[in-house]
Amino acid sequence: MKKKQYVVRTTDPNDRRIVYATLTEQGTTFISNLFPQFEALIKEQLDVLDEEEKGTLIMGLKTIGLNAESHWRAK
């Protein structure tokens, strides 16, 4: 039986240390089928929070994201 290939890896011609990963059609289909289940799981987990807690979480995640972005831009 042939193994399903979800990703194709391609080495950068200018820098062999860099490897690009591209989803195949099978990979795209797999992710498309998996995402709704993942989204439902996240919504279920967040349903335990009230609106104020959700707002606090959103602000915290934005702060983390902005900090990460500035950290990587500085390099």
How does this structure look, described?
The protein is of the alpha+beta class. Helices cover 61% and strands 13% of the residues. The protein contains two helices and two strands; from the N terminus they run E-E-H-H. A hairpin with a 7-residue loop joins strand 1 and strand 2. It starts with 6 loop residues before the first strand and ends with a helix.
Structural topology:
Elements: E1 7-11, E2 19-23, H1 25-46, H2 51-74
Antiparallel strand pairs: 1-2
Give a quick set of tags describing it.
single chain; 75 residues; alpha+beta; 2 helices; 13% strand; flat
In DSSP terms, counting alpha (H) and pi (I) runs of 4 or more, how many helices? 2
* Strand segment count: 2
The major sheet is characterized as: 2 strands, antiparallel
Shape: flat
Please state the average pLDDT score. 93
- What is the spatial order of strands in the main beta sheet? 1-2
Strand content: 5-15%
SSE topology string: EEHH
Rg value: 19 Å
Percent range of helical residues: 55-70%
Determine the N-to-C terminus distance: 46 Å
- The SS-based structural class is alpha+beta
In the predicted model, the low-confidence regions spanning at least 5 consecutive residues are none
Short note summarizing the structure:
By secondary structure, this protein is of the alpha+beta class.
